[in-house]
Amino acid sequence: MEVSTNFGIDYIKTCAFAARHSYIEDMESQLISFEKRLQAKNFKVYWASSEDDLVEMVHDLLPGKYRTKVCFDLPTIPEGFNSSRISKVSIADVENGRQSPNVLFTQADFGIVETGTLAFYDRKSKNCFNTVSNIYVLLDISKLVIKASDLELILYLRSFYQSQKFLPQDLKLLNAPFLKVSENINQDGEKITQTPVEITVFLYDNGVTQILQDHQLRNALYCIDCGQCKTVCPAYEYDKEYTPIGLVRANCFEHHRTSGNLFSRALLCGNCDQVCPVQIPFTDLIIKEIQLSAPPKKGLLALSKTFERRKKLNKMSGSFFRHFFVRRMYGKNKMLLNYFRKQKEPFYNVTRMQENPQNEQ
Predict the structure, then answer these.
(1) Which of 73, 103, 223, 282 would suit a FRET pair with 293, their CA atoms being 20 to 30 Å apart?
(2) Is the whole-model pTM more than 0.85?
(3) For residue 346, what are the contacts with CB-CB under 8 A and spacing of at least 6?
(4) What single-letter DSSP state applies at residue 197?
(5) Strand bridging mode 198-204 / 44-48
(6) What's phi and psi for 90, nearest 5 deg?
(7) Are 281 and 219 in contact (CB under 8 A)?
(8) pLDDT digits (tens, 9 = 90+) for 276-309
(9) Cβ-based neighbours of 99, under 8 Å, separated by 6 or more
């Protein structure tokens, strides 16, 4: 399907949800097919179950026995790569030709199962692919689509919400290994030599299969990284620590549920539910995680109190009454208390504000 302005945004969101659902519900078999297609193209493929596993695996695969120059283009560089085996090189130095790393380590945004293709969206290292001999690609195993048309839908939504453009201008598709081009000048003039670039793909689990075991929590894997949920989240607006999807993903794991982050970072205002283009039920997922984080009786008590706060909070219209309500209900939570004190206008629920604009002045 070719995405264009002829399709309404609601229709595109419905199709994108269906595409994510199809992959997530059949992830195991789709991953096997994807691995086979990568290997058929002479990509090297490894499976990394955790960050520690990834770090150990990369260290074993680094070319050379001693210090290796590596250029990282990752959102977060794992702490384990701060070792004597690795000398970090900046992307700017590679682009300008000041440094020649042995390895470029980047992250793919999506993989296409039917073609064995890696998709890179707005990556700084896109112009450096043919300047290195080894490319390591990290790919979250939840970030795959079955067909190329599914990727088009997702990229449309990401671009629409992030820049109001139809499709990204900076998209690179990696379909097969390619050649590194270098120029050598001899007495006969300029001679161009080509050497193959070795591409290694790390299929990164990092808790995905654990989340997949729960039929409700697996909805958190539908995320397409559009960023919409964080733009309407009051808690994130204040402290910039946890986005709604980041909070949900973190609390899928037991050791995070007992840390208290969930209770201090979630208002259950429902804003993220309203704006998510792939229909992730944030509120339902947080409620489930609240129930999992405490014994049954305490969990139900906390749940009822949270709903009571949400109901009352959405009814607060006068700043005078809202001040005393917030002080009473959130006085012990300094982060949220300070946030509400600074609020000049209500910002509790998108749907309520749209349906009752006269009551939200």
Answers:
(1) 223
(2) no
(3) 316, 317, 322, 353, 360
(4) P
(5) parallel
(6) -75, 155
(7) yes
(8) 999 999 988 988 887 777 666 666 666 666 666 6
(9) 69, 71, 89, 90, 93
Q: Can you give the residue ranges of every domain in the chain? A: 9-204, 227-359
Residue 191's beta-bridge partner residues?
184
Q: Which two tokens stand for residue 83?
A: 């070792």
Helix pair angle (27-40, 9-25), 10° resolution:
90
Ramachandran bin of 167, using left for φ above 0, alpha for ψ from -120 to 50, beta for the remaining angles: beta
CA–CA distance, 248 with 318 (Å, rounded to integer): 32
CATH label, 9-204, candidates 3.40.1050.10, 3.40.50.1950, 3.40.50.10420, 3.40.190.10: 3.40.50.10420
Q: Are 135 and 101 in contact (CB under 8 A)?
A: no
Q: pLDDT tens-digit profile of 155-194?
A: 888 888 876 666 666 788 999 888 776 665 545 666 667 7
Q: Are the CB atoms for 267 and 340 separated by under 8 Å?
A: no
**CA-closest candidate to residue 312, choices 298, 300, 326:** 326
- For residue 44, CA distances in Å to 206, 271, 353 come to 20, 42, 52
Say which residue, 299 or 144, is predicted with more confidence: 144
* Residues 202 and 138: beta-carbon distance below 8 Å: yes
Query: How many residues are present in the chain?
Result: 361
Using an 8 Å Cβ cutoff, are 202 and 54 in contact? yes
Report the candidate in 232, 231, 3, 24 with the shortest Cα–Cα distance to residue 141: 24
Beta bridge partners of 199: 135
